[in-house]
Amino acid sequence: MARYLLRRIVLLLITLLITSVVIFALTQLLPGDVARLILGREAQPQALEDLRLELGLNDPIPMQYVNWLSGFVTGDWGTSFTSGNPPIRPLVLERVGNSLLLAFYALAISIPLAIFLGVLAGLNENKWIDNVISVVSLSVVGLPEFVTGLVLINVFALGLGWFPASATAPADATFGEMLSQLTLPAITATFVLLAYVVRMTRAGMIDELKKPYVRTVTLKGLPRRQVIVKHVLRNALLPTITVIAISFGWLIGGLIVIENVFSYPGLGRLLTAAVERKDIPLLQASVMVIVFFFALANLIADLLYALLNPRIRLE
Amino acid sequence: MTSANVSYDVPVQPSALTQIRRTLFTTLRKLSRRPLSLVGLVIVLVFIFLAIFGPNIAPYRFDELIRGATRQPPSELYLFGTDRLGRDVFSRVLWGAREIIALPAIATALSVLFGATIGLFAGYFGGWIDEVISRFLDGLLAIPALVLALVMLGTIGPSSFGIVVVIVILYTPIVARVIRSATLNMRALGFIEAAKLRSESTAYILFREILPGVLPALVVESALRFSYAIFLTASLGFLGLGVQPPSPDWGRMVNEARETFAQTPWELWAPAAAIALLVIGVNLLSDGLRSIFRYEGQLV
Amino acid sequence: MNDQPIIEAVDLCIDYRLNKRWLNAIQSVSLTINPLEIHGLVGESGSGKSTLALALMRYLAPNARIPQGRILFEGEDLIPKTTAEMREIWGSQINLVPQDALASLNPAYRIGEQIAEITRLHKGLSKPEAWDRAVEMLRRVRIADPEAVARRHPHQLSGGMQQRVTIAMALSTQPRLLILDEPTTSLDVTTEAVILDLFRDLIRDNEAAALYVSHDLGVVAQLCDRVTVMYGGEVMASTPVIEMYQRPLHPYTISLLASLPRPTEGAETRLPTIDGVAPSLAERPHGCVFAPRCPVALDKCFDEKPPLEHIRDSAGTSRLIKCHRWREIDDGTLAIATTPVQAEASAPPGQHYVLKARDLDITFEKPKLWDRITRKQKKAVHAVDDVSLSIRARSTLGLVGESGSGKTSLARIIVGLYTADDGEIELLDLPLSLDLHERSREALSELQMVFQNPNDALNPYRTVGNALARTINRLVTTDMSQAAIQRRVYELLNLVRLTPQYATRYPAELSGGEKQRVAIARAFAANPALVIADEPTSALDVSVQSVILNLLKDLRAQEGASYLFISHNLSAVSYLADWIIVMYLGHIVEEGTQEQVYNVPSHPYTEALLSAIPNPDPTVEQGEIRLDGEVPSARRIPSGCRFHTRCPRKIGAICEDETPPWRDAGDEHFIRCHIPIEELIALQQTKPDAQPQPVAQAED
Lengths: 315, 300, 700
Prior knowledge:
The structure holds 3 protein chains of 3 kinds.
Chain A: H1 2-28, H2 34-39, H3 45-55, H4 61-73, H5 88-123, H6 128-138, H7 145-159, H8 175-209, H9 212-218, H10 224-236, H11 238-261, H12 267-277, H13 280-308, H14 310-313
Helix pairs in contact in A: 1-13, 5-6, 5-8, 5-11, 5-13, 7-8, 7-11, 8-10, 8-11, 11-12, 11-13, 12-13
Chain B: H1 16-33, H2 35-57, H3 89-125, H4 127-141, H5 145-156, H6 160-187, H7 190-197, H8 202-238, H9 250-257, H10 265-299
Helix pairs in contact in B: 2-3, 2-10, 3-4, 3-6, 3-8, 4-6, 5-6, 6-8, 8-9, 8-10, 9-10
Chain C: E1 7-18, E2 21-33, E3 38-42, H1 49-55, E4 64-73, E5 76-77, H2 83-89, E6 94-97, H3 101-104, H4 111-123, H5 127-140, H6 146-150, H7 159-171, E7 177-181, H8 189-206, E8 209-214, H9 217-223, E9 226-231, E10 234-240, H10 241-246, H11 251-258, E11 269-270, H12 299-303, E12 309-312, E13 318-321, H13 326-330, E14 341-342, E15 353-364, H14 369-373, E16 381-392, E17 396-400, H15 407-415, E18 422-427, E19 430-432, H16 441-446, E20 447-450, H17 464-475, H18 482-495, H19 512-524, E21 530-534, H20 542-559, E22 562-567, H21 570-576, E23 579-584, E24 587-593, H22 594-598, H23 604-612, H24 653-657, E25 662-664, E26 670-672, H25 677-685
Parallel strand pairs in C: 3-8, 3-9, 6-7, 7-8, 17-22, 17-23, 20-21, 21-22
Antiparallel strand pairs in C: 1-2, 1-4, 4-5, 9-10, 10-13, 11-14, 12-13, 15-16, 15-18, 18-19, 23-24, 24-26, 25-26
């Protein structure tokens, strides 16, 4: 188990390293002169040259990469290209907090709901309740976030007035206000997660119910409820852990759109802004942070899976 | 027992074309027996029709400013109303159908082509080829799809070509992985080994012996990829990284319509509903294919 | 003890709903199991034996129903009972020992918990009491360290141990009836023999009754008191076991028993066979279900279903039988040929060799770079170690051994599907490359293979004719005309007794036996000198197996080919092989002619294998040699003699330390053992005292 943990952590680091190369390489594709981008059209040649030297833009590209990566690892994330050149780290970290808050809210709603619906559908394979759950999760819930988000805003914010239409989250908002602001975005995020997790949980449940040990347990004389809760769910929910980790990637993608729909100051909106303004250091930092959290989620899921699965735990 | 010189004129193997036609026919028949799949199929066919003939049906050009008809609510004249500049929303939606369907379709086709080839090779040979592809895939999957798409389109600049490239880069490895594991399962089967024992070429084994067997997985995966590609294209459009103005992009139309929502809500609802309907249709269809081919997959 | 049966099925029918139609799966079946009886239920796949066995527990698939009949358990009808009422009986009165032990145990819980669960539920034991009882039960099934095993998870145990656990679980509530659903089918023959001995003792100790479901007539003969034979969803006959084997009255039973290959069969004989295939669920005839394959069927048999009669035969034995003609068979006026047919003599084995292989060696899963980095102690699997063999023209070399012996790897090295690490092969006196890609077309055409599983031997998307034509095209000649190829395809189909119509069929339209025939035809397409057959009948039903074995024998005579015939079934090997080699953990331990290997002296491992064969004649005592434990992992090959960890004739430290020498038993009969030949002969002519020992968990 200790070796397994070590192996996973090493793999995590390798993944982060590879993605850092990918991201850095991608941002090098950007046409144009970075120094001119920062200083503007009227900049003096001397000033441009100074800035290039300062930023290390004349160094060979591998050198630039090493400098960037070592800076990133040691906490020097550079400054943004935007006016005032604010340092990136506090900006990104603040936005990460906001995004994580929204993400956890969405997960807290969607995971229990998705598992419940998936188990319900799996237990009633091909009966009407399964068909209803499948069709609803396939069609309504599988829509792009900006469509569902806008529908929710129009019905529950503009129409019924139950929740605010945007979630700007002022720093001094009370917990209740925050919850109220975040509810619609979280529900929107839930929709996307739901479709995928329900489907996989249902499939896992159906597979598991067909396994011979279920018959063995039934023929021990165990009541149906105990057969399902103690035996089947114990195994059927294992793959769901992995599914949730994978759908975390969906959630991140979803949050980028949702934060834009609800004008929520999260990392996703920061990222889209960075793309729009071609703010490379900000772009690099935001993507690295996103990748880190995604990889971390996968790591936690792997460990949880291994802990709950005797086949791996006892290796 | 009949003697060996009896002649039978039946060809021993029907042509590939006959086989494909037969399979297509039975698939369509099975789809049409499932009410929801039939709905999905009809929706998708209607949208494909619109993608091809939309501009011919549309009463106006997508950028045609109708004088004196700004912000008209839906009416017989302007089916989905007009926008703040006096453009016919119905016509814009029709014109926009082409790209939201064509770009994902092209990208999916290319991903399936590349992915299937890579997957066949990786699954069949295993070893370092497989190792390299798997690691590359892990790296790619470590970045959430939309994030990678944003970074790539942000740097190379948004364009139709860019969207196709991004989707192909994102989905090729996923298709490759599916085909790889299907191939891996087939690699040790008796008829593959029998082919080796009669010194068939690798290409023959991959494309004539293995490919037909992984086709069900490939069909289902193609349908799924297509639906995700539409989803992604629409989302990129909404974020302003889709097809660039002035050509109409449903995602961007929704985004732009938010500002004037209070005055012209139809400007938002029309493209949003179009996206929703298309996604629902493709999802229903791909779900139908799934259950059809899973069923068949167990038989073989 | 009263005379009331433990369980009695009366006129029981079971239907399945398939494609919106109810199909009759079990047709008016009656079955009685008396107290203390071990009742065998035999039948081929699709006969409905497992469906019936589970239905006796009133356990049905969701798409099944019981339209008529009664199931009386100690006089009480189970059919009207609710599931809640059945739960009182399940696990306490009637218990199941399932077929696939690993899949039948929950992977997430410890062995002890899973056994304890049943006594807590039905005996009201507390958690610690139930745990102690579980450990006690594990001890009773002769598991050496029951406390430790109780704490393990199912996947950490070997197959034999898993099966012991399921029987421990089933016995822990002392049920009135035990239903054993093919519990030894997936085990190796030596393990099976040990488990069967254990079952016999435990079922007797339980003082109840048992229903033993099996497709293996040998196992049933050795274990059961009474046997019911099923075919096509109906009971054909039910008889005390001795009468079943000595005086069968039903044509199906008679033919089935006759078709079994037995040891010591002459080289020029053909097995009696049952033609045709069992009817599918949708195609059951409305007359006697066996009539289409029956050698003595009358018109009446096709028109009218015979009743299941409770009879007393001329010797006074009480039986159940379902045949219009049993009286004629009983009084001897109707005889069904059961003796092997003497066939025309084929040419005797030639003097020259078609294949000579020297010092073949292969190792799998060598440590990779990653393992070296993480310092993982990963052992390589040395599957074939220094093996030499030679095969004469027109002869069959039998290769026997349990799973893990390396026999399949050896076969694959020879055909080139695995590239050996080391060694030399000569085919028809010419050196043959170890690498398949370097072999010439001529070499490939001389060396063909028949695979174990007929279901994946043919590409499902190609017709039979296409599969054959392609092989002809690739291996025989490239400039054959289309018509000539087509002619050859029909010739080949004719060779394996299939009509030319089969050329246009797809594999899905063929039965298992027919697929295997096509695979054999494909192997013979290029007139090979040597055909390697890797367990060609192990996936087939008994009645089909004899057809394939006969076919292989005929083709050897007609086509003059040689075989390397691989099997774990020593009876099938004895039917076909002239010479035999016995493998254990990658080594050959004995080689000689068929008679030499099957008789004294033998290597102790061969002796144990022969002893473990369940003989399909209850009056012939099974051998008494039993092997402890299971085949060790090829990652941890024991030192010295590889067999020393399980050898019942181990003589001491020398077996653990030194590799045994080849000993010459005369006439090219070789045994690899530390015991001198004379001593082996002396030892093997007297019976060893066989005391069942608790087995330790094989470490892996």
